Target: DNA-directed RNA polymerase
Amino acid sequence: MEYDIASFHVNSFNYLLDEGINLAISDIPAEKLRLANGDAVEIRYCGATVGYPTLKDDLIVPCNDDLKLFPAECRQRELTYKAPIELPIMLKSNRCHLNGLSREQLIKHGEEGNEKGGYFICKGTEKVIRLLVASRRNYPIALIRRNFRDKGDLFTQYGVLMKCIRQNHSATIMTLHYLENGTITIAIQFRNELFYLPLMYIIKALVMQSDQSIYQHFIRGRAKDLFWAGCVSSMLLCCQEDGIRDQESALIALGSRFRVTLEDRIGSWETDQQVMKCLSTFVADMSAKATFCDGTVNASGI
Model:
């Protein structure tokens, strides 16, 4: 396909059909239940297949010409050009019957000879999804905002924000807040809720290291900065006072905070540590951005 403005839409939709939809399916939580004999059972989706637009909605494989539904017919009959699982199909994508047709064949099926695609037909009307300009992904931005002070006691106007994008292209916002007592709190947006957690809780949950090892890692490159060394010591001391002494206790503490939010994903019999296993993909995403939790703090100087 020659590269024009429509090709970017088509290629993006093809990615959704071939890879993206399975990434989305893998993010659907498992249904958990207990049988009468006490056994725990999990039921989850393993994948999804998108078919081709047809006159019969239950077909998910390529069909013969008599059953194919073409865009021109959808325009005339005010239908939606869609495939099984009720997904609208983008014109000229790899699930569209126009894909790969010659100029003469396109005209035969009621299209323009130079049809590029890149849009949908919904109830007979052509619709396009605009490409929007969004914040740079996975890039930390140091900010000074007065409204940060309104987040709670001891909050200052200083913070570091990053829009984090997972492999399935879902997004979450993380913000490091510097507090007046020299500690750092991380604000995590998860399932449309905002959680404020001590940064060191997250660090201890992600790595199985001693306090001394974590301390040395945080002051690396700033060993002579006594103020920063004091901040790191204060955060580690707060963990000790709260009983967060190792990875296990950190996972239990975090699991108890997320349990209510994950009520539909976990069983009542599961422990707080198992709750964190339900957050494994989310935690793994945070682990992949470990530099945001330490190196970024050093670089921003908060």
Notes: The chain has two domains: 6-127, 139-291. DSSP finds eleven helices and eleven strands in the chain.
